[in-house]
## 1
Amino acid sequence: MAYDSGNIFAKILRGEIPSVKVYEDEHALAFMDVMPQADGHTLVIPKENAETIFDLSPEGAAHLIQLTQKIARAVKAGMAAEGITLMQFNGAAAGQTVPHIHFHILPRWEGVALRRHGGGMENADKLKGFADRIQAALG
Ligand code: 5GP
């Protein structure tokens, strides 16, 4: 299927709608999920127009997973998480709601369940506070 350049993450990449950014380079962006399933829930997306993992170039895929590893390390340290869950959905049938490939980075603590996917919007100041902690851990 053709890439839909009107999707919400494409708009974030073009700066048409705001996001709480954690990291950006030439190829990718990491930012806070506005409906977090855990405190510190971070998304990593490529700048390449790709709906699913199958649409990414090999170079884009390599950069995306390397950056996901780097950001996940900072999320774990910055949020003092005991573990990290990574999630990545391809296609509506798999649970993908935004048609631009992304990795979810979810900090985990013993006994703390994930909140509902697509649940409530988080307060922007709280998201900024988590982003600051993750950025500090990135150095
Ligand atoms: P998916 O279901 O496609 O794997 O995940 C999409 C994610 O994007 C969800 O976790 C949802 O909370 C998040 N999301 C949806 N709209 C926005 C938005 O406008 N800004 C941000 N930062 N996250 C969004």
## 2
Amino acid sequence: MPEFATQPVAPMAITFDPAAATLTPSGPTLTRRMSDLEGLFADTEAWREAAEGENPIVYEVVSSPVPEADRELPQSITTIHPGQVSGEFWMTKGHQHPNHQGEIYLGIEGVGGLLLFDGEQRRYLDMAPGVIGYIPPGWAHRSINTSDQPYSFLAVYPGSAGHDYGWVLEHGMGHRVISADDGHALIDFSPTGAR
Ligand code: S6P
Ligand code: ZN
């Protein structure tokens, strides 16, 4: 067996339940409430009212036991609950992988979108069960629930990728995703507090 700086975890079978959006056995779970999402939504006053009021859970991330370590390949399932802040759909914080590496998302339940931004070019992918959204190295990414039902997806990414949230707060994601008569619409990114 080759030498590794960090010993790899042992081979394991992980049961993936798409209906329940669970991984068994599971690792850490992350819960993001509205108060954790400062600086994301265009309407700061509406965000503050929600954060200081009911402070709902916006999304949860359950992970498999595979660690975020060099050469490992962790997986996680994110479930974004349905909701809007002043017409802007609930979304993840969004991040850039500072050690530029690719990632895949597989839609498993509900529908949503995957916003991608490399600092110049911007893309939007419609996500649904069975769709693989490919995130190339160097593209920041954010997920959005564009429906009135929960939206879940599986993420698989290199364990050494890292997560830079400051880059997205500084540069935005190129677009905002808002509700529209026929579902959702993309508008140009505006700084937080501009609406
Ligand atoms: C990790 C992967 C996802 C997100 C998750 C939450 O590289 O992209 O597991 O971490 O969807 O999003 P965020 O932006 O809060 O980390
Ligand atoms: Zn990522």
